[in-house]
Amino acid sequence: MNPLRVIGGRCAIVGGAMRIVAGFIPYTPGSAWLEGFYGLIDICLLLGLIGIFGTMANRLCRLGLAGLVVAVIGQASIIGPDPVIFEIDFYLAGSAILLIGLAILSMAMLRSGQIRGAAIGWLTSVGLAVLATLAGAELLIAPAGIAFGAGFVLAGRRALTGTFPASDTPRNRTGLAG
User: CA geometry: angle at 117 spanning 112 and 123, to 5°?
Assistant: First the structure.
């Protein structure tokens, strides 16, 4: 099996599972172990995103690639300390960019019949995060994180099994190959 698929799948499962657990841990500002935990989650999810996309790259259109690029930029921007520079909270900005990328990637996945459970988990996460922000309902943040993590666990499992339903046959719609 492709090493990228194995590493990406395992990282997605581990990162997703840790993100689910993080939904039950109260945030404590300045907690070194918690920041380390979040950092490990973010690194796993970044590697997971790349591996997950690699399992279905030849089945997604350019929209899927665009979603991946946006999601990777968002995920990469939140790894490490969460600075506020020029009055921009980089964690909030990166999280928003990540969710936009995952929404785009999820739409491409649903359109091509790829890993529907993961796509639905990520879209649920986006919806809950938007609702939490607009309505000021902080109680929705934990369920959004749990749906987010579940999407990664489901996608990681699919990456490792390498099994795709008949509707998931390669379509070479990336526009990247000749």
Answer: 85
